[in-house]
Amino acid sequence: MSNPTPVLPDRPETSAEDCLRQLTRRDFQTTQEIRWCPGCGDYSILAQVQKVLATVGSPRENTVFVSGIGCSSRFPYYVNTYGFHTIHGRAPAVATGVKCANPDLSVWVVTGDGDSLSIGTNHLIHCLRRNVDLRILLFNNRIYGLTKGQYSPTSDFGLKTKSSPLGTIEQPISPLGLALAAQATFVARTIYADPPHLARILEAAARHRGAAFVEILQNCRVFNEGAFENVASRAEAEQSRLLLEHGKPIRFGLGGSKGIAVRDMEPVVVDVNPDDPEPEGILRHNAQADSPALASLLAALMPPAFPTALGVFRDVQRPTYNELLIGQIQDSIKRRGRGDLRKLFNAGTTWQVD
Amino acid sequence: MDTCPTNGKQFVEVQQATVRFAGDSGDGMQLVGSQFADIASLMGNAIRSIPDFPSEIRAPVGTLAGVSGYQLNFGDEEISTPGDSPFVLVAMNPAALKVSLPDVQPGGIIIVNQDEFAPANLAKARYPANPLEDGSLAGYRVIPVAITQLNEEATRPSGLSGSQRARCKNFFALGIVLWLYDRRVQPVLEWLMTKFRKTPEVMAANGASLRAGYNFANTTELFRVHYHVAPAQLPKGRYRRVTGNEALALGCIAAAHQVERCLVYASYPITPASEVLHELARHKEFDVRVIQCEDEIAACCAAIGASFAGAVGATGTSGPGLALKTEALGLAVMTELPLVAINVQRAGPSTGMPTKTEQADLNMALYGRHGEAPLVVLAAATPADCFPMAFEAVRLATRYMTPVILLSDSFLANSAEALAIPDPDRLPDLRVAAPTKDTPNFAPYRRDAKTLARPWAIPGTPGLEHRIGGLEKEDVTGVVTYDAANHRRMVEQRARKIAGIADDIPPAKVEGAPSGDLLMVGWGSTYGAIAAAVRQAQAEGRAVSHLHLRHLNPLPRGVESALRAFRKVLVPENNTGQLSAYLRSQFSVPIRPLTKVEGRPFLIRELRQAIEETLKHE
Fold first, then answer.
1. A348 neighbourhood in chain B, CB within 8 Å
2. Closest approach of chain B CAs to the CA of A283, in angstroms?
3. How many other C-beta atoms lie within 10 A of the C-beta of residue A196?
4. CB-CB: which of B308, B310, B421 is closest to A346?
5. pLDDT bucket at A284, cuts 50 / 70 / 90
6. Domain residues of chain B, as ranges?
7. Which superfamily does B240-426 belong to?
8. CATH number of A16-232+317-345
9. Which of B442, B465, B477 to mutate to test the interface with A (most CBs of A within 10 A)?
10. What is the pLDDT of residue A8?
11. Same fold? B240-426, B510-616
12. 8 Å CB contact of B285 and A12
């Protein structure tokens, strides 16, 4: 594939005020009263996002949070940057417009499983495919919370909810599988219950150039309590979480006593020697592989047969949509000169009436 | 009608002429038609053209579905429609004849390519007998010409293959028509030299065919009369030909340039609006950022996002697409962001007749949102008027921080006429002052005292970080609130802001006497036919005037007094009476609708007749 290498406008300068001191989490807090339910997983995500914004030194004025509709989509009101709480499912489309109008902005999309995997799936797919330079945080609680408890496209098959009293008869969608199929250049999964991991993944997403998709497993205490209990539980973490690290063997379990291998094109769990830093016969993570095959295999690992994989599944570079868009404009200006209305109006056959 | 003899042939002076070139979609009718339009323009005529092409991408050759036509109306005075009925028809095959014949004037000239009237083509056109031989064309002056054969002979020296040479025969037909209307071939030859400079043999063959057609008409006994149309008295200046869609694109570019912000045009392909997308995609040197979106909803949302980020956000579509954008338009109303949504209307409902014209989206534009969601609605009246109306849409959107729906339609989109090329130095300055961190008392919903617009505080500006969204806001601060009194106040303010725009647009202007027996009130593409019919009626002494509305919401000041100054009001529309109902809802004035929903524009004679009937009945 031969992609042009566009010349981009320079990255935004950190504003003079913000240069003088290190930003802190407090800089990104607003005075708005937070309206999530007590104990909601969103509080943890908000805190880590604010912290990461400070860590990466994202100037407040150059940061924009765009959301759709749902509990998660209240997020922009609680971050002291520019924010746009849009309509159901459309945040990726609005954010695409924001980024194309001003590529210097750091644009974050906050969305949920109903917002981005049901009513707005189309926009998510195309935004990832285009590789618009956005961070997309998908809070997956496997339920419709704001509308008070209907099953969502990620709800487990058979889940009983107000709209599925006998259990859902729908196969859940895989957020990561969808993102990988859409050729996303950065695909990750983390969980609200592990703030350090959450912060690490958010920081990696913040530093990625291109569409960065992060599925954040999140607990809805009111309508789907315990949906991710086995992954969230600290006690079971070693057994239930498969922490991916680029270039490292893919292992989990007590002291790293288990690994993931492939037999007959199927993933299997195998025992490994916890003391062996480089055990033979198990998969080694490569987030930078051209092929999304390994990432897809890891994304599909599901409890109870497998642990839930967390971390960066895929992190590759491809020119971004906004770079290419601006690149074509800059090329055109270089070739034809900056647009001249007189020339434009007088193009083609013209005639004079005296 | 003056006549004078030249070269043994009669020379007739006419004021106006309507010519249609019709052939198979592969016959190059659009090309020679538009060349003829340029020649007429260069010789100073007023022009208006309309193409009629098949909706199929490649309909089978020779069939009725595959006929492509280009009709030009030109004259020595104001020309406001593509002409009710052609006086000259060029029919390159039987199907073209069959499709066009019902429109041709009785006694009109029909030039047919007789070589194509063979049994196979007659069968494809479903002619039981050869119309050139069965007497069915007795009411016309039929001029059969062996165009295929004569073109073949004329182009032989070019050395091109037989099929390449056959493609030149449209220029033979153009040559005939140039002679018929006393036009020079030289400008077309010059155009060919530019167009085919990389393939000189193609240029030579087309040129040879053109000259052969011209000479044939000049020498053959078949043509005894040719016509002259004098130059029109157009206002001084430089002109070019534009279609409505081209003019929309130019208007958007010019306006964004005057706002001094980049234009982000987000759109999803749809007939008949796609040419706006194509045209804008060609002009990247103006920093036009075109996003072809995954769907209509995304297109509207991306445009809104772009406006939020400080660009001129625009989207374009046709009826079905506007329906999909409805929710996002509500968001733009609530967040009070500038947005231009162009709707090039087509016949509906649903998929309807995508290539046919209609004006039935006025209700959707005015009312098609949930909640109290007023926005600005504009409508262009002619193809060239699409330029100033696109400019106006951007002006109002940015000055008043509001979505604007600009209505055009399939008729305007494809029809072409002369545009007086504006002087870029005289275009109004549309810059909007953006607040900065030094702006005292900045608040996202603190309104300008005069326009009631909220400030356009653009991400990237330090110190003005704020959050907006679809939830109701507290007045001034923009903080989310469900407070009852506040909601009432915000609904009122959003409505007052739009209503107040009436003071910033030209008042209603009646064309003709300010009072009389009948006022014809129109909007959109009916302008040309109404204007022509009213002029004719006025010339015959009728007390008829014309009011054309370009601003539909808010309506200009003075509409009611204009309506009351006439004994009768007739509202012609290509729908079942949407403007009539709207005007009745605003003013208690008796209004008669005149409707035509056939996927075609009004003919001048239909309106002329309606004027007479309305005046007759008490």
1. 240-241
2. 37
3. 9
4. B421
5. very high
6. 3-229, 240-426, 510-616
7. Thiamin diphosphate (ThDP)-binding fold, Pyr/PP domains (3.40.50.970)
8. 3.40.50.970
9. B465
10. 38
11. yes
12. no
Q: What is the mean pLDDT of each run of 10 residues along chain B (618 residues)?
A: 58 95 94 95 94 80 93 94 96 97 97 96 96 95 97 95 95 97 94 94 96 95 91 92 97 98 98 97 98 98 98 98 98 98 97 95 98 98 98 98 98 96 97 95 97 98 97 96 97 98 98 98 98 97 98 98 98 98 96 96 97 91
CB contact under 8 A, A353 and B237: yes
- Selecting from A333, A347, A354 the residue whose C-beta is nearest the C-beta of B285 gives A333
pLDDT, position A10:
42
Tell whether A33 lies on the interface with B, counting CB pairs under 8 A.
no
Q: In this complex, do A339 and B253 lie within 8 Å of one another by their Cβ atoms? A: yes
**All structural domains of chain A with their residue ranges:** 16-232+317-345
The alpha carbon of residue B257 is apart from the nearest alpha carbon of chain A, in Å, by: 8
Interface test with A, best of B284, B292, B417 (most A CBs within 10 A): B284
Q: Does A13 touch chain B (CB under 8 A)?
A: no
Mean pLDDT, rounded, for A278-285: 95
- Tell me the three-class secondary structure of chain A, residue by residue: CCCCCCCCCCCCCCCHHHHCCCCCHHHHECCCCCCCCCCCCHHHHHHHHHHHHHHHCCCHHHEEEEECCCCHHHHHHHECCEEEECCCCCHHHHHHHHHHHCCCCEEEEEEEHHHHHHHCHHHHHHHHHHCCCEEEEEEECCEECCCCCEECCCCCCCCCECCECCCCCCCCCCHHHHHHHCCCCEEEEEECCCHHHHHHHHHHHHHCCCCEEEEEECCCCCCCCCCCHHHHCCCCHHHHEEECCCCCECEECHHHCEEEEEECCEEEEEECCCCCCCCCCCCECCCCCCCCHHHHHHHCCCCCCCCEEEEEEEECCCCCHHHHHHHHHHHHHHHHCCCCHHHHHCCCCEEEEC
Would you call A229 an interface residue with chain B, using a CB distance cutoff of 8 Å?
no
From A61, A328, A333, residue closest to B460, measured CB to CB: A61
Q: Which of residues 88-117 of A touch B (CB under 8 A)?
A: 90, 93-102, 104-105
CB-CB under 8 Å, B331 with A97:
no
Architecture of domain B510-616: 3-Layer(aba) Sandwich (3.40)
B3-229 topology per CATH: Pyruvate-ferredoxin Oxidoreductase; domain 3 (3.40.920)
Q: What is the pLDDT of residue B129?
A: 95
Of the candidate ranges A14-28, A252-266, B225-239, the one whose mean pLDDT is the lowest = A14-28
- Residue A1: pLDDT band (50, 70, 90) is very low
Task: Answer yes or no: do B285 and A332 touch at CB < 8 A.
Answer: yes
